[in-house]
Structure formats: C-alpha cells, structure tokens
Design brief:
Helix content: 40-55%
Order of helices and strands: HEHEHHEHEHEHHHHHH
Largest sheet: 5 strands, parallel
Radius of gyration: 21 Å
Strand content: 5-15%
Number of strands: 5
Oligomer: single chain
C-alpha cells in the first residue's frame, strides 16, 4: 500500500524491466499511465533519460515480424515518427517502450508475441528498459514467460479502501448500499466497475440493481445506466 509504481520500476532488482499483471478492470493500464507520467517528468528534467512511448500490442499480428520492426512501424503509425528516426532512437536506447494489452493479441499469436519480446530482449539491440501489461489469466496459460526482471500483480480494492474512497467523494449513501449487499460489494471492488458505478449512480435504479440476483444482469444494468449518463452529460467543449 502507498507504494508508487515508479518506486517498483526503479528498484535495483527490477532495473526498469517489469511485467504488470491483473484481472480485467483492476487498473493495469491506469498504473502504466501513472508510470508514464512520472517518466515523462524525469525525461523533461534530465536529457539523458529515455522517452516513454505507449504502444498497444493488439496490433501485433505477424509472428514472422521482429518486435523491433513492429515498434518502428507503430512509431510511424501512431506518432508520425519517420522509420529511420525511429530505428535510430531504438538503437541508441532513447525510448522506453510501455507495451499494453498482451492479452489483446489474437489468441493464436499471443505465445509468439511473448517469444518475439524475449528474442528482442536477447538481441544486441535489446532495450535497456521495458514494461509490459497483461491479464493474469491469459499470461498464466503461456508455455513461455517473459524474460523480464520481475512482475507485480494488482489487487482488487479492500473493503476499507472502498469505504475510504466513497467517504472522500461524499458518496456515503452509495457505501451504505454496498455494505448491505455482499455480492454488490465484491463487484465494485474492481476499480473500473467502481468508477462506472460512481459516474452513473444518478441513472442507476439501486432497488432494481439489488433485486437482480446474477452478476451478469447487474453488469448489464450498470452499463445501461453508464451509457445513459454519458449520452446526457453536458459537453463543455465546442469542438463538436
């Protein structure tokens, strides 16, 4: 508790090569973004620090393609970086790749993607720093593990953390609802679902939500309420 992801990433035994694991909605991408923000601050303060670059592995589709070549293509596609410059930056270790969504690679290619990352880590142009995010369930099924220096497993919220958070945002009524329903309490211990619940609370029929006895139906009601909330929210931007 209270340990920042940057502290873990820069531990001597991790040496900036880390895997983030967790269940769906537990906060893997958010944790990666927190790290990216801290790394950007370091890069702006110190010219020798590598530049963090966020990429999603879901676009990795060809097992024959080397990870370095995929990265260069993604830098061009997502950030408009010329391929020769992207190649130079990689070779000069000026980038710090943060790779999200290993579990979003097509199932038949996920094992090959892990192998491609490992081959890159053994290459003469291997990255000095690397972070990968994946769901725990999918990663546990791979025959090959990523050759990183360590991993963290993100936990769901505790009851105490949940109560503290809802109290801090003046949602004590919502806390009383959860406290009286053990199944609902377990459901919202996932940060993503808690966030959806708080955002859509005004549109959600709590009585109907409590009367439904299956997790799937409760999720459906929650998502319906969230969609209604988002459709009726006031957009301050004049862009549209």
């Amino acid at each position: 508790p209270e340990t920042r992801i940057l502290e873990v990433f820069e531990r001597p035994d991790i040496a900036r090569k880390l895997l983030i694991l967790g269940e769906p909605g537990v906060g893997k991408t958010t944790t990666m973004l927190d790290l990216a923000q801290a790394l950007v601050q370091k890069a702006e303060a110190e010219a020798v620090e590598p530049i963090p670059v966020l990429l999603n592995l879901s676009s990795w589709k060809d097992p024959k393609v080397k990870m370095q070549d995929w990265l260069i293509d993604e830098l061009k596609s997502k950030y408009g970086v010329r391929k020769d410059i992207g190649k130079q930056w990689l070779e000069e270790k000026q980038l710090l790749p943060l790779l999200d969504g290993l579990d979003e690679v097509k199932p038949e290619h996920q094992e090959s993607c892990v192998e491609a990352i490992n081959q890159w880590l053994e290459d003469e142009n291997r990255p000095m720093n690397l972070l990968v995010c994946s769901r725990r369930e999918e990663y546990a099924n791979y025959a090959t593990n990523l050759q990183l220096n360590g991993a963290i497993l993100l936990q769901s919220l505790t009851t105490g953390q949940l109560e503290q958070y809802l109290s801090a945002i003046n949602q004590t009524d919502l806390w009383q609802v959860f406290r009286q329903d053990a199944a609902l309490l377990e459901l919202v211990k996932t940060p993503l679902l808690l966030s959806l619940t708080v955002l859509s609370y005004e549109e959600l029929s709590v009585l109907q939500w409590q009367q439904v006895n299956s997790t799937e139906k409760r999720l459906a009601l929650l998502l319906d309420a969230y969609v209604q909330k988002m459709l009726h929210r006031e957009i301050k931007s004049k862009a549209y």
